[in-house]
Amino acid sequence: MPLKHILLSLTAIAAYGQALKVQVDGKPVGVENNLNLMSGNGIMHVCVDNPGQQRVDCTPSFNTALIPTHDAVHANENYCESTNGTPAYTCRLRNKALTSYSPGMTFVLNVDATCTAFCSLNIDNVGLKNIKKIDGATDPGGTLVASQPQWVFYDGKVFRLMGGGAASSLTDSRGDVRARRVISTMDSTPYQAAMTLDVTAGDVHKIRTNPSGGNATLTAATAGLPGQHMIVIIANDNTSAKTITFGANLLSVGPLVGVTGKSATIHFVSDGTAWYEVSRTVGL
Which range of residues forms the domain containing residue 120? Predict the structure, then answer.
C-alpha cells in the first residue's frame, strides 16, 4: 500500500478516535469532534487553552444585568437594632456594612428607647437621618416604642415609619384606649310617624320634627353591641310640641314630650339585648 494511503488511514482513525460523546441528563445529544459552549439566558462561559494539562479550562459566569447578585437584591441583612439608650438611634447591619443610603431601602428597626417626639437613625455610620411618620413630615411622637420593631424605609431624605404606631401608645395596661379625642359619626333620621334608628350608621342620631307632622314612635333596628352608647338629639319645630314614644329595642322611662322650638337629648346604653335609657335633657 502506498505510504500516502497509510497516512490518510491513520489520520482518519485518529480523527474518529477523538470524537466527543455529549450527553445531557444521561441522554445522548451527539458525537462530534468539537464541543461549543454557548451563552444564553444570562449564563456565560470563559474558556482558555491549557496545553500544560492537556485540556481546555472553562469557567462559567452570569450576566448580572439579567441575574442580580445577592448584594444587588438584598444589599444587607436588614435588621437594625439600636441599643444606645437614646432617640438618636445607631445600629450596624449584621451581614455586611452599609455604604450608602438609597431611596426605597427598607429595614426592621428595633430600638431600646421610645421616640416620644423627635428621633433620628444612623446605620453603619453612613449618616444621621431623621425618622418621620408615614407622611414623611410628622415626628413619630410616641409611635416608635422601645422593643417593638417596626419597618422603616428611606425615601431619599428621611426614614419613614411604615406602621401606624405601636399598640401600647394607644392603650394602657388594662386595654383602655387613650387618644386625643374620639368623634362619633352623626346620623340624621327623617321625621315621620314611625322611625327606625340604624344603630350601625353612627352613635349620635339627630331628628328634626316636621311642623306639619304629629307625634311619632321611635325604634332601633337592632339591640346594639354590649357596652355600646347611643345619643339621640331631637330638635322640636316652632309649630307645636311633639311627643316621641319609644318602641322595639329601646327601653325608656316613658315618652319624650318635646317643647316647641326647643331640643332634647336622650342617652342609651346597650347590654346586647336592648338599649337602656341612661339620661335625658329637655328644653335645650
Answer: 74-169
